[in-house]
Amino acid sequence: MSRERxxxxxxxxxxxxxxxxxxxxxxxxxxRDWNTFGQYLKNQxxxxxxxxxxxxxxxxxxxxxxxxxxxxxxxxxxxxYGQPEPPAPCTCPLRQAWGSLDALIGRLRAAYEENGGxxxxxxxxxxxxxxxxxxxxxxxxxARGIPHKKKKKQQISSKRNDESSSxxxxxxxxxxxxxxxxxxxxxxxxxxxx
Length: 194
Ligand SMILES: [Zn+2]
Prior knowledge:
- The chain has one domain (23-184).
- Helices cover 51% and strands 2% of the residues.
- The chain has eight helices and two strands.
- Strands 1-2 form a two-stranded antiparallel ribbon.
- Helix 2 packs across helix 4 and helix 4 runs antiparallel to helix 5 (127-144).
- It is elongated, with a radius of gyration of 18 Å.
- The N and C termini lie far apart (50 Å).
- Bound molecules: zinc ion.
- Residues 74, 78, 80, 90, 92 line the site of zinc ion.
- Residues 25-152 form the ALOG domain.
- Keywords: Developmental protein, DNA-binding, Nucleus, Transcription, Transcription regulation.
């Protein structure tokens, strides 16, 4: 049993799963994310076997993704700090939006267990990931002047339903055109007027 599991995990295969001919966007995004994460682990020096992957690797992965982010997050010294619509460009860094990371973690958490990992060892379900995401959320909300009012307990209580409804694409390659839509969706999702 454990050998089989190891094999599945190592190859990221899902041979004992039914693969529908046209997987949903969520499913295909999840598979892409899973492959990306697997690739990331392989590219580490030395490579990290999935069986030894822990929450620290996941946190490093999230920070690594920031270089591909397209969300302007103002630094505290910036004159536009806290302004949702800055009137001019600034040199603050681009990051992954909190909502993208949150949705990504949800997909990877599901993928980990679908690929033979156990809930007990699931690094994506680790409390430190929750803490990190909360910090990112609060920091970005302040820096961008976009409060996240709703206190959703996504990490703890939600199942796949919530995650699939927030179908947010992490785009690992440069693709500026999509970001606007994405941002829009995130802020509408999290800022709905009360
Ligand atoms: Zn700035």
